[in-house]
Amino acid sequence: MITIMRRTALGAAFALLALPTLAQERSITVASTTSTEQSGLFGHILPIFTRETGITVRVVALGTGQALDVGRRGDADVVFVHDRAAEQRFVSEGFGRERRHVMYNDFVVVGPAADPARVSGGRDTLAALRGIAAAKAPFVSRGDRSGTHAAELRLWQAAGVDPLAGRGQWYREVGQGMGPALNTAAAQNAYILTDRGTWLSFRNRQDLRIAVEGDARLFNQYGLMLVNPEKHPHVKAADGQRFIDWLLSTPGQQAIAGFKIGGEQLFFPNAADAEPVS
Amino acid sequence: MQDLASAFATALALIAAGDRSVAQIVLLSLRVSLTALMVAALVGLPLGALLAVTRFPGRRVIVVVLNALMGLPPVVAGLLIYLLLSRSGPLGPLGLLFTPTAMVIAQAVLITPILAALTRQVLEGLWDEYAEQLRSFGASAARAVPTLLWDGRFALLTVLLAGFGRASAEVGAVMIVGGNIEGFTRVMTTAIALETSKGDLPLALALGMILMLIVVAVNVLAQGLRDAAGRWTG
Fold first, then answer.
1. CATH code: domain of residue A245
2. A chain contacts of residue B172, beta-carbon cutoff 8 Å
3. Which of A99, A167, B113, B134 is most deeply packed, by most CB within 10 A?
4. Predicted-complex ipTM score
5. Residue A61: closest CA among chain B residues belongs to which residue?
């Protein structure tokens, strides 16, 4: 009896192992950012691409810095991120072939409704940051080398404020993705810089609302690069390029523009904007 | 309180609707964790048993190391396996990073020390009782291993469940080596982490409830198996 039971148990175990290990499908791996994944953009556009080409896209969502590192190590075929300076470095080091503009959205500064720094409603990001620093109002920073973190640091620098002086007091680096950072800001009634897409799809806002938006400095460009097959020969260059070409084509750009949350468009295609020669 | 109630309602709705993506995530979680458990058991149980019945120089060191490895932080294990499996790492040509296989490896690495250390603990007690008897039959230490494993099977079931629990609850390592890719390497724990990031706390909690339900079901199943076997063998 026991032998039978053991056989059944073993049989069940092997049946479980033999579960469709995935039909052999064409697939590429894309290293991208939490903002594109968590906003739901990929959930909207990837099925369209897969339907047209039969290529499955596997997205690993990380901060921009990490996503570029994944590309450097050859663990992804395409990198889809938003930190122009870091992307240009990636290409000039030879890890990416060429960098293409694909779409943009914008950052917003959100903060508590009580607005202790009195910065709400303005369009001047730099003035708002100075106000937050002067009031020593809590500010949550991603602190994770992401594209948003890089943009935030550039804004502080342009504002002429060194936030690290307030480190451990009002300036709080969480070292996490956009969502967890927003959760922290919501819990601490802190100000934070976030991309609009993640903000729109974020559910745990509590008392947070948009404090500053519409400043040209808050522009957030996304770039697209094929990992250089000369550095990493196993890169699926043809299928990866196909994905890039599709995103830059009219159907791809329309798919991006068609992604909306609550009627609001989150990303604005701009593949036609030529990349300035770097 | 409202969050808890809405999480509970969400969990029930997800189960009732037989949500396909949730079902897929649940199946992958089970597949990965049970496979890891099997791999770990094949290594950990015999290793633990051997350590229980043999005495050799250096044995204590191995026992201490195994006990210490029970506390190996999943993130560290994940990072090591990431570097090994990365295309730029020594095992890169296998192309295993960001696949379910990588997740099985990570979980197996995490729970093998647990299985081995606990097996040693359990069987050492048995060996103390039986050593005389088995030796009088002329059984060598190596021959005693299968006998001990069989006699200790009920206690070892608990050991296996402890390993399964740790494997299925683990998030840090599988997040790093699996990449939490939707429809491919997303398991319950990484899905919970993702929904938490998105601030959808009720959905995250609902998925957590479903995960607990599965773990309880596996435990009930194991307990039932044990009781049934106990009755048949008397």
1. 3.40.190.10
2. none
3. B113
4. 0.83
5. B179
